[in-house]
Amino acid sequence: MRTPARRIALAAFSALAATALFTAPAAATVYHQGISVRPHAHIAQDGTITLSGTYSCEAASPGGAVQVKVTVVQDRFRLGLGAGDARCDGEAHSWEAHGTLRLTPGIHEGAALAQAELQEIHFGGGLMPRAIDQIAVDEREIRVIDHR
What we know:
15% helix, mainly beta, 8-stranded mixed β-sheet
């Protein structure tokens, strides 16, 4: 009797696995994605800081959107910048992020750490995201140049 019970359990497990495999969305994950940040950030006369770089990504999963997020860290100050929505078509694109130093005046000329991320945001039917996944990141030391 052990053999038939084992076969039934194996058949049930196989059917469950096949169901899970064939009902998963075809584009559930973003493949072949990347992002880079250029080695210099610039502070303009009006106190606006600008960073730039490039990215590439393929189509986001159903119900998701991809955005570029940039963070600059210098001394004990942290400034988050958004560079907007990404166009995920497999091609290389430029991004540029701007932010004001009005609320973070501690960012100054010199060495800093920059982190550029591609984030896939999954919405669950409302305005608030259900999940945010980091799909690509470039973190490097940069030089902030002050043009004021």
